[in-house]
Design goal:
Blueprint (H helix, E strand, L loop, with lengths): L22 E3 L4 H10 L14 E3 L8 E2 L6 E2 L23 H11 L5 H17 L1 E3 L9 E3 L26 H12 L8 E5 L5 H8 L4 E5 L3 H13 L5 E3 L13 E5 L5 H16 L3 E6 L7 H4 L2 E8 L2 H6 L5 E7 L1
Parallel strand pairs: 7-8, 7-10, 8-9, 10-11
Antiparallel strand pairs: 1-2, 3-4, 5-6, 11-13, 12-13
Helix pairs in contact: 2-3, 3-6, 4-5
Bound molecules: S-adenosylmethionine.
S-adenosylmethionine (SAM) binds next to α4.
InterPro entries: Ribosomal_L11_MeTrfase_PrmA, SAM-dependent_MTases_sf, THAP_Znf, THAP_Znf_sf
Protein name: ETFB lysine methyltransferase
Keywords: DNA-binding, Metal-binding, Methyltransferase, Transferase, Zinc, Zinc-finger
């Protein structure tokens, strides 16, 4: 049987994790399909082939499901009605709210840096214009502004992008594992001083702040990533600090916890990063690494790690990260 995933926003059932469930294809009829997509908050699938997407039986009333000889069927005109996503008001924020948000972000800066504030003002509108609020990932309790399949930039060529390498506009599998683990393990961040190195959209830092870390810094050498992280922190009603300094090779003074989400994608960089992380860990810092199996996290390196958790990636992340179906959270020994 081919692998199928439930397309409902925030539902992670799949034929791998829940083989006992039936999965019903989106209706071929455009009008019915549009009703389904609205109910499951997946209007981004409007122009996708309906035969490629399914909704699991957990979202249908028992009365709508008929036992068939081989597999269950749905009564005509059934609609998904159970366990559907609640879209929060702030998830539909528009570009016009960007200036308000940036003012709030600036107030969270300990020592406002003028150049940084100017950059923040300039990029916030762009970020709002080209991203949407998304909860279609492993941590639906966090809303993040991302480029998703519903955004025109999703299919844009590199030269058409208004940002250079917008890594922050995607929620990488490694970062998803890091944030998921933090949100599931309440005490792990309590009273910690946390730095999220290569924070991208800032989800790791935001999860740590939500779980009552004492101090949280979202760090990325890309200043637009730190701006996006601030915006996302504000959307999730937590306060974080940001920095675009390169901390790699430093003692990371002032921090006792280091988060790394999906940074083992480059062999040369992985060498540098891993040795540095080991030195931090042997100096007593807790180092958590989220990674879906990138080549930089070699077998030899994994011997120095403890596997804390493994997660199936939601369908949209599998599509985004060709080949990766799972992601893991590791801790340096
Ligand atoms: C693959 S993305 C991962 C983003 C995020 N952690 C996640 O999992 O969604 C890697 C990020 O690392 C950042 N980066 C690369 N080198 C860095 C460095 N020396 N210090 C801090 N960030 C760095 C990039 O700008 C990029 O945002």
């Amino acid at each position: 049987m081919p692998r199928v995933y439930c397309a409902v926003y925030g539902c992670f059932n799949s034929s791998i994790t829940n083989p006992e469930l039936s999965y019903f294809r989106l209706p071929a009829d455009a009008e019915r399909r549009s009703k389904w997509l609205h109910l499951i908050s997946r209007e981004d699938l409007t122009n996708k082939p309906p035969q490629c997407y399914t909704v699991c039986e957990a979202h249908f009333d028992d009365m709508d499901i008929l036992a068939g000889t081989h597999r269950k069927k749905l009564k005509n005109n059934s609609l998904p009605s159970l366990c559907l996503p609640i879209i929060q008001k702030k998830d539909v924020q528009t570009e016009t709210e960007a200036p308000k948000l940036v003012e709030k972000c600036i107030q969270t800066e300990d020592t406002p840096r003028l150049v940084y504030i100017k950059m923040l003002k300039d990029v916030t509108s762009l970020i709002f214009k080209h991203t949407v609020c998304s909860r279609s990932h492993l941590t639906p309790e966090l809303v993040l502004r991302l480029i998703t399949p519903s955004c025109p930039l999703w299919k844009a060529r590199e030269e058409e992008l208004p940002f250079k390498d917008p890594f922050w506009a995607f929620y990488w599998p490694g970062g998803q594992a890091t944030a998921r683990y933090i949100l599931d393990n309440k005490i792990i961040m309590a009273n910690r001083r946390v730095i999220d190195i290569g924070c991208g959209c800032g989800a790791g830092a935001i999860a740590a702040a939500k779980m009552k870390a004492e101090f949280v810094m979202a760090n990325d050498v890309d200043e637009i990533a730190t701006a996006a992280s601030l915006i996302n922190a504000e959307l999730n009603e937590v306060s974080i600090q940001t920095s675009s300094e390169n901390f790699i090779g430093t003692q990371c003074e002032g921090f006792d916890t280091v988060l790394i989400g999906d940074m083992f994608y480059d062999e040369e960089f992985a060498n540098l990063l891993f040795d540095w992380l080991r030195s931090l860990s042997s100096g007593g810092k807790m180092v958590l690494i989220g990674d879906p199996g990138r080549h930089g996290l070699t077998e030899k390196r994994r011997k120095h790690l403890i596997l804390l958790a493994k997660y199936d990636l939601p369908q949209v992340s599998c599509i985004e990260n060709h080949g990766f179906m799972e992601t893991s959270l590791w801790k340096l020994k």
